[in-house]
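Researcher: Quick test of sequence recovery. C-alpha cells follow.
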C-alpha cells in the first residue's frame, strides 16, 4: 500500500533545512514581537474595504442567493466595478495591488456576510488564474490574462477528477503534443471545478508524456491556461451541494481541445509544483473567511444569550450555554491571531510558511464548524429554522442554519483536514529523515545504518540532550505576566513534542508514516502550540496599542488554558489508545462481518 506521506508534494517541496528545527521554534523572532501590518499598508486597503462592506450590505442578499441558488448578474458587475476580482493583482495589470493582509481583511468581510460570494471571489483569485500566474507566469501570460481576470472575467482551477482527489498523481486527463510540438491536445474530464460554470478561463492540470529520470519512468503533470471558448471544451454538468447553493461548480469535459505550448505555466512537467504551491499560498484565504463566519456566529450567540430568558435569567447566565460561548470567544481570538500572523509573515516574505498556512487551514475550518454547531445549539429551534421561515412568522431572519451548511465543506476542499495532518506531519519529519532516517530504517543493510550513525550521530549528540533542557520565554520584551506563563509552557512543550517525534521515529522507523492517528495527535499538539504562541503575541500587541488590557488578557488566557488541556489530552493518547483495535474492527466491517450492525434498516 502506497503511503499518503509519499505524496507528490515530496517530489517538488522546496528545500528548507537539512537539520531538524529548534524545538522551541514557537519562541520565534518572526512571532515576537507581533509582526503588525504597517500603517501604510493598512491604509492602502481602507478605501476598497469600505466599498466592499457597503456593497455587501446594500446589494448582496445572502438569503435570496441561498434560496435561488444563483448570484445575480448585477452582483458580478458590482463586485467587478469595485475591484473585488483583482484584489492582489498588481496595479500595472489592472488590479488593486493589495497585500495578503488586506486580502485577508476582505475575506473576513465576505465570510461574515455570504459564503457563496466568498467562495466565488476566493476560488477566482486564490487558486484561479491570477495566483499561479503571479507565482510562475511569464510576462506575456501576465499581460494577456491578468487584466482580464482583474476586470471580472471569472477564472477557475481544474485539478480534481473522478478517480483523482487527494492524490493528484493519479490524474488521467491527457495532454498529447502535436507532431510539431506547437500545441497540446487535451482529452478527459474534470470534476468539481469551482467557478467552472461562470469561468472564461481555466488553469488545467493534465498528464503529459512521461519521461525517464535516472532510468525510471516519471509521470509528468503540466499546468495549462485554457480559454473556456476553445473548441472541444464543454461544461457538461453543474454540481449541487448541501450548502453553498450558489456555488458555480462544474464538470468540465475536454474533447480534442487544442492548447498552444505558450499556455504552459512554468514548464512542462512542473504542474504539481504549480498546483501545490498555488494551494499552499492560497490557503490563508479560507481561514480568513472562517474568521468572518465565526465572528458573525459569536455575535449572534452573544446577543441571543443576553436576550433569551429561561428560568428567570438570560440563558447566557446558565453555565452550559456560557461554556459554549466562552469557547467560541477564545477560539475566534486565536483564529484571528493565527491567520493574520501568517498573512503578515507572507507579506514580509520571511521564509517557508507551508506548515503555518496548513495549520491555519486545518484548525480554522474545524474550529469554525464547531462554532457553527454550538451557535445552532445556543439558538435552539431558531437556529435550525431558515431565515425565510423566521421572517414569515415575524422574527428576525437570522440564518444560523445557512452558515452551518455553508461552512461544512471547508474541512474538505482545498485539502481535507486528514490530508493537512499528513502534510504537516511529513513536513515536520522530513528534516529528521534527511539527517537520521537511515539509522532507524531496519530494512537497510547494517553497514549503511552504521554509516548513518557516523554522519548524523554528531548532530543528534547535541540536538537530543537540548530537548531535555528547560524551555521558557527568554527575553521577550514587556511580555505581560499573564501571557508569560503560557509562552513558557509552549517553549517547554515544544521540546517535549520534539522528543516524542524522535522517539516515535526510533520506535516505528520507516513504518511511522503508517501510524496516521499517532501522527495526527502530534500535529494536534504542534498546531495548538502555534495557536498559543500567536495568541500571546497578538494579545501583547493589542494591549500595547491601547486596547482594554483586562478584556484582551482574559480572552487570551482562557484560550491558552483550554489549548493546554487539549495538548495534554493529545499527549495522554499517544501512549494509551485503541487505535489498533479500531483499525481491525474496520477491516472486519469492510470484509462483511458484524452483520448485526446492518440489521433492521431500510
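Model:
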Amino acid at each position: 500500500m502506497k503511503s499518503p506521506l509519499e505524496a507528490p508534494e515530496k517530489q517538488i517541496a522546496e528545500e528548507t533545512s537539512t537539520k531538524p528545527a529548534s524545538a522551541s521554534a514557537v519562541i520565534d523572532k518572526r512571532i515576537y514581537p507581533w509582526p503588525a501590518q504597517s500603517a501604510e499598508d493598512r491604509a492602502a486597503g481602507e478605501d476598497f474595504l469600505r466599498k466592499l462592506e457597503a456593497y455587501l450590505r446594500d446589494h448582496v442578499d445572502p438569503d435570496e442567493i441561498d434560496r435561488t441558488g444563483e448570484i445575480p448578474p448585477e452582483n458580478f458587475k458590482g463586485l467587478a466595478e469595485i475591484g473585488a476580482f483583482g484584489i492582489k493583482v498588481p496595479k500595472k495589470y489592472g488590479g488593486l495591488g493589495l497585500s495578503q493582509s488586506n486580502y485577508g481583511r476582505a475575506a473576513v468581510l465576505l465570510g461574515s456576510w455570504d459564503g457563496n460570494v466568498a467562495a466565488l471571489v476566493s476560488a477566482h483569485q486564490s487558486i484561479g488564474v491570477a495566483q499561479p500566474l503571479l507565482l510562475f507566469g511569464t510576462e506575456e501570460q501576465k499581460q494577456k490574462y491578468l487584466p482580464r481576470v482583474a476586470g471580472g472575467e471569472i477564472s477557475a482551477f481544474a485539478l480534481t477528477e473522478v478517480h483523482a482527489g487527494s492524490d493528484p498523481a493519479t490524474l488521467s486527463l491527457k495532454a498529447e503534443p502535436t507532431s510539431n510540438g506547437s500545441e497540446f491536445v487535451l482529452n478527459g474530464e474534470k470534476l468539481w471545478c469551482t467557478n467552472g460554470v461562470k469561468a472564461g478561463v481555466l488553469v488545467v492540470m493534465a498528464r503529459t508524456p512521461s519521461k525517464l529520470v535516472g532510468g525510471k519512468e516519471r509521470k509528468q503533470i503540466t499546468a495549462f491556461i485554457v480559454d473556456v471558448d476553445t473548441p472541444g471544451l464543454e461544461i457538461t454538468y453543474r454540481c449541487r451541494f448541501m450548502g453553498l447553493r450558489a456555488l458555480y461548480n462544474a464538470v468540465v469535459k475536454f474533447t480534442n481541445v487544442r492548447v498552444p505550448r505558450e499556455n504552459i505555466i512554468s514548464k512542462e512537467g512542473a504542474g504539481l509544483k504549480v498546483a501545490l504551491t498555488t494551494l499552499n499560498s492560497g490557503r490563508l484565504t479560507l481561514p480568513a473567511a472562517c474568521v468572518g463566519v465565526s465572528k458573525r456566529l459569536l455575535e449572534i450567540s452573544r446577543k441571543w444569550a443576553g436576550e433569551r430568558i429561561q428560568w428567570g435569567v438570560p440563558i447566557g447566565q446558565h453555565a452550559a450555554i456560557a461554556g459554549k460561548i466562552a469557547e467560541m470567544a477564545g477560539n475566534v481570538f486565536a483564529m484571528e491571531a493565527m491567520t493574520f500572523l501568517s498573512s503578515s509573515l507572507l507579506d514580509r516574505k520571511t521564509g517557508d510558511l507551508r506548515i503555518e498556512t496548513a495549520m491555519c487551514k486545518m484548525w480554522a475550518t474545524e474550529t469554525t464548524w464547531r462554532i457553527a454547531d454550538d451557535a445552532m445549539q445556543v439558538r435552539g429551534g431558531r437556529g435550525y429554522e431558515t431565515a425565510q421561515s423566521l421572517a414569515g412568522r415575524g422574527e428576525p431572519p437570522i440564518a444560523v442554519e445557512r452558515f452551518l451548511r455553508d461552512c461544512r465543506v471547508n474541512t474538505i476542499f482545498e485539502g481535507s483536514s486528514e490530508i493537512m495532518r499528513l502534510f504537516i506531519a511529513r513536513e515536520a519529519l522530513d528534516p529528521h529523515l534527511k539527517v537520521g532516517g537511515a539509522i532507524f530504517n531496519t530494512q537497510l543493510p547494517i553497514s549503511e545504518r552504521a554509516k548513518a550513525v557516523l554522519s548524523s550521530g554528531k548532530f543528534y549528540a547535541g540536538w537530543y540532550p537540548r530537548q531535555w533542557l528547560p524551555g521558557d520565554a527568554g527575553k521577550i520584551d514587556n511580555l505581560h505576566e499573564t501571557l508569560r506563563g503560557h509562552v513558557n509552557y509552549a517553549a517547554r512543550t515544544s521540546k517535549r513534542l520534539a522528543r516524542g517525534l524522535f522517539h516515535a521515529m526510533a520506535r516505528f522507523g520507516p513504518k511511522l508514516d503508517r501510524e496516521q492517528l499517532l501522527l495526527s495527535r502530534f500535529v494536534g499538539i504542534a498546531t495548538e502550540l502555534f495557536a498559543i504562541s500567536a495568541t500571546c503575541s497578538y494579545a501583547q500587541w493589542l494591549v500595547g496599542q491601547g486596547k482594554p488590557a483586562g478584556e484582551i488578557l482574559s480572552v487570551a488566557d482562557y484560550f491558552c488554558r483550554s489549548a493546554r488541556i487539549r495538548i495534554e489530552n493529545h499527549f495522554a493518547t499517544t501512549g494509551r489508545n485503541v487505535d489498533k483495535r479500531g483499525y481491525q474492527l474496520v477491516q472486519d466491517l469492510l470484509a462483511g462481518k458484524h452483520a448485526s450492525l446492518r440489521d433492521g434498516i431500510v
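Residues 7-25 have pLDDT under 50 and may be disordered.
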